Every structure is written in C-alpha cells, then in structure tokens.
Amino acid sequence: MNALLLLGFALFAVRWTLHAVEPLAFTVRLETVMKHDDGAFLWFHPRATAVPGGVVMTIQKHLKVSDYYSGLHVMTRDELDGAWRGPVLPPELDWQRQPDGVTLSVADVTPGYHAPTGRVIAIGCRVRYSPDGEQLDDVKRAHQTVYAVLDPKSGQWTPWRVLELPADEQFNFARNACSQWLVKSDGSVLVPLYIGKSAVDRYSTTVAECRFDGVTLAVVRHGNVLRLEFARGLYEPSLIAVGGRYFLTLRNDVRGYVSASDDGLQFAEPKPWAFDDGTELGSYNTQQHWLAHSEGLFLVYTRRGANNDHIVRNRAPLFMAQVNPKTLQVIRSTEQVVVPERGAELGNFGATAINADESWVTVSEGMFMKDSKARGAEGATFVARIRWAKPNRLVALPSSPNSPSTSRDGRTSPGAADRLS
Hints:
Blueprint: H1 10-18, E1 26-35, E2 42-51, E3 54-62, E4 69-78, E5 85-88, E6 96-97, E7 103-114, E8 119-129, E9 145-151, E10 156-157, E11 161-162, E12 173-175, E13 182-183, E14 189-196, E15 204-212, E16 217-222, E17 235-242, E18 245-251, E19 257-261, E20 271-272, E21 289-293, E22 296-301, E23 318-324, E24 329-330, E25 336-339, E26 349-353, E27 358-364, E28 380-388, E29 405-406, E30 412-413
Antiparallel strand pairs: 1-28, 2-3, 3-4, 4-5, 6-7, 7-8, 8-9, 9-10, 9-11, 12-14, 13-14, 14-15, 15-16, 17-18, 18-19, 19-20, 21-22, 22-23, 23-24, 23-25, 26-27, 27-28, 29-30
C-alpha cells in the first residue's frame, strides 16, 4: 500500500503529459522472511509499510479452510536489513469470541503510514466466522470495513473499529479488502471500497474520502460508483496516484479492469487490462496491485499463458510491468517475473513504496495444490525488493535522528537512526 506517496505530484504531471513513456529499469532481490508448512496453517496476506527507522509487516494464519484467518499478527525489522522479529499477535488484533459461538475476525488487511499524524493505519474487512470457519452473513452489515491504529513510538495498537458509512443500502456490504489505499498531501485518506446490498449482490466499486486525526478515520464523501453487470462485478480495488492522476485496478471473475481519474473520486468507465499490442493481459479472478515511481507507473499481477495452468487460477508467478498512463495498457516489453512460481499460488500479495530507492512486493506461498511441495514450494513468505535505477521522488518519510526502533516484543525502543527519509 503506497500511503507513503506524497501526492503533491503536479510537478510531474506536465512531464507525463508531454513525453512518451520511457522504460524505467529495476532489479529484483528475492528475500525469504520465513518458511512454514506444518499442515495446520500457512502464513498468508503479508503486507508491509515503512515507518521511521524500520518496517512493519502484518500477516495472518490461513487455517486451511477457504478464507478462514486468525487474528492479525505483526512482524517488524529495524532499518531495511535488520533481522525480522515476530510474528506476534497483539491482543487488540486477535479474534473476538461472541457468546453465541460466532468469532469476529478481520481479513485482507493493508497497513500504511500516515505521515501527518505519525501513525500506521491497518485497514481490512470484518468477518464473522462459525465454529467451523465458515464466513457468516447472519446479521445486517456483517461485512464492513474496519481499521486499527498503531503508534510506532509506543508500539501500542488500538482495537478494531468499524469505518462508519452512509445508511444507504448499497453500503450494507462494504469492504476495503486486499486493497491499496493512499494518503493525500493534506492528510486526507482515499479508501477504495467494493460495495453491495448484500454479500450475494453483484459488487460495485467506489472511493471514499476520509479524514484522519490520529485516532478516528471518518468518511467525508464518496465518488461515483463503478459497475459491471456480469459475474461478481468489480471488487478488490487498488488505488494509486502519480503524474497528476489517480488509477484503479479492479478484480473481476473473467478479467481484470482499470480506470483513471483526475481527482481520485470520479472515475472513468473501466476498461479491460490489455498489453500494448492489444492482446488481453490474461489476469483474472484475482487481485492486481500498483507500484508508483516519479518516472513511471507499474502493475504487479498474475496471468495466463506462463506455463502455469497447474496453478489455481494461474496465480503464479508474480509479474511486474510498466503501464502507459495514457492508454492504460501494460507495456509487454517491460514485463519481469518478480516472484517465481514453485508450485504454489501467489495471488494474495501486497505492494508498497519503502524509500526513494526501493519498493517491496510481499507474498506467501499458498500451498493449496496436492503437488505444491513436490514442485518446490515450502510455505515461504517472500519480500521481492524492487531496486529502482533512478530515485523515486514521490517517496519521503519524516526524518528523526532519534526515531524509535521496534523491540522483540513488538513494542519500541529509542535510538535507531532513520535511513528511510
């Protein structure tokens, strides 16, 4: 999630308008954070954000039932190359067991740093589980967007809170899930949502503009609603901004879609993702995410046609390629594999700017095929460290020579120099 991107990007807009797309080179270093495959659970949904003096990454246990997740665990490291600590489960982010046997949990979380307040916001979706791990739709507004807030200096998390939305029935189901959101230069937060009248309704997408005071995330208004009248509609939207414009990538069961906006609220009719030669991208029924650089816009995705039909929904390897922001097409010649396929699916991943030199793609191997282990998968959690050939002038963090560093128990201690500014 690119909450670090400072959206005072007007200086780049003129250059983007007047010049053709020039490929921006990058290299990839794949780092293994941990490996786990004990048959009881897999680590899943790792997503990271840089904070002054280090990195915070959230991750959950996939409990071997479809979309059945533990409470939210946290990993931390000092600087960019320190040893990883965790995962630890803060009690504020754990399951909430109800008297009727229902478990309240949160899934599909994306954390991001809110520089104006010095807080990390973790945004995801509330889930009600039966004792067997089935997702329930047994009460009104069972599926809503929730958030928790971390003070990186103290290491203290708040409990989950519901993002309050209008009473309109189109928000009865309203999720920010597996979705990149962003912070504008004035401190307001743009949160993409997929919405519907119920969990079985066809999904539509809108972007909510919110204010955040360091404690409460409150909706101010929302943009137009994007609809697609087939399959399950448009969902799991991810948002980015660069070159004076905003971009949404959207999941659909048949193919991925893309849309653009001048203000981050009113978006154009979505169009299917395609390569610059006109052929369909081939990404379907899974999420895509963005990386933005002052010199270019990039998409991270999975697709068909990569000798990967043995992977469920062709969800590996993870590709990254530059996007033409005018035509909204993927430039085929720039495509690279950033996380290789080893017999496991990689469809539930994160992407974020870390500093001016580096962005990360984070993912865990979903070992859901019978031959995943035989093909080489190990239940690994990866960080694909994208090293840019040119500094990314969109990214900045507040500098503080006394920035806190995170201690082994997930709390913080003073003294780590801040290398992320």
